[in-house]
Amino acid sequence: MVAVFAAYANSFSVPFVFDDQLAIVENPTLRQLWPPWTAFSPPRGQGLTVEGRPLLNFTLALNHAVSGVAPWSYHFTNTTLHALAALALFGLVRRTLAPLQGDAANSIALGVALLWAVHPLQTESVTYVVQRTESMMGLLFLTTLYFFRRGTDATTPKASRRWFALAVVSCLLGMATKEVMVTAPLVALLYDRTFVSGSWSEAWRRHGKIHTALAATWILLGFLVLGSGNRGGTIGAAAGVTWWQYALCQSRAVVHYARLAVWPSPLIFDYGSDFVSVGDIAPYAALDVALLALTGFALWRRPALGFVGVWYFLILAPTSSVVGGTRQMLAEHRIYLSLAAPILLAVVGLHAWLGRRANLVCAMLGVALIAATARRNHDYRSELALYTDIVAKRPANVHARYNLGKILAETGRLDEAIVQDEAAVRLNPDLVSARYNLANALSDKGRFADAVTHYEAALRVKPDYAKAHFNLGNALVRLNRKPEAAAHYRAALQTQPTYLEARDNLGSVLLELGQLAEAVEQFQQVLRINPNLAETRFNLGTALFIGGDLPAAAAEYERTLQLNPRFTPAHEALARIRAARP
Questions:
Q1: Which residues sit opposite 235 in a β-bridge?
Q2: What are the structural domains, with CATH classification, of the chain?
């Protein structure tokens, strides 16, 4: 516990990043705990990480009740959940190895739990707040197996039933946390066959009812998955990812995760859409096939060793096989539970080789990993630092380039933002968001002609992009191309009729073009929705004044001054009207 909190102490000040903004800060279902079903009902159809995961959403609502949108309580909870998962892993490994390793089981279990808990590969599941879904699912997965083992070790039927009931409850809660939990009943059955009953038939004869109850928790998972559909277009074909493209990448991903388990560098927050060809992945696919074959052989001849291999591959399968299909082709949080497999093999090997001296080696490795984890957490200190790190490690990641450009523009570093946006456009000329951000940055720099080029390119891909029409209209006004600007304001309003800024700007352009009647109509529509816009009232008064309706113009100028008594142009205009009256 001390080691975990030492490794993650510098994460408590990490701000919300990436999906945290939508899933936490802008998630309305977190803002009240009563009635309770509100917090258990995350938004649907928006592709949020909380979608279809009610228990995750509820725990975030609890944090919101404690600290609002201040991140510290969320990070404290994430670290605590991770520490509890490490304790559950310790208990499971210790009880599993006790009949096989004797007194060494305690030391091996401690080494495995320590190295697993402080390994820097776990940072994405702990420091990135919304990926609590991974660590909490991991905790519930481990407690399901731990409670199952306690049930098999119990000395009375009553105690056994109590532990088995806890295992089913834990499994059910896991299904409400993340879909990877689908593998827990299968792993529990294999665990029973390997370490408890000795054969499939005996496992089913002795514990068939509990395995059936564990499998029944799939009903809840099925209901939640059907309810979330394609997660707002973020998975499968809706995200632009075919099953075969995803499968190609996962052949390399499985090997890549194993390499990071041994040498966790470089760690990358967002790998991007990393499509590869058959030729590129052939060596990785061959290695995967070989490892799977060895796992199958070990299940037959050395079941305990085979179980470790199945643990690694089966838990990765829901996110790292043909069925995954998300935009993120690789994601380090997916290795969270599977990481226990290579660490277990390493620690058992160390004890077989060094005996008691292996404890010292594990302690030294633990200290080194704590330092590496703390250093990795430093990369999360701000969105700017995080995306700068991603771009340095994955320069071809178009979404990282786009997000870095957006952040740089928001902090006023426009020249640097333009460099990143231009790189994103070169990588993907049809990425509308990158084109739009580049155009905005160019416009802010006063390069209106260049901005127009990129707004138009964005609109060729997405003709109904209201904000792009609006900002293109603004750029055209600055270039004195007002009839074209009016056309784009109209286009923005066709897509979004309540776009007040576009309607207001359209009225201003029409006023300058001398189309007074329509200008008056546009201003009046704006003021019907928001009557407290002083500048719009002034413009309406000006249109009426030019049209010769002096009483109506004076009334609008007077209303303008009621809203803003210091609006000098309105004072001047009203003085002109009064001077012109006989």
A1: 326
A2: 385-530 (1.25.40.10)
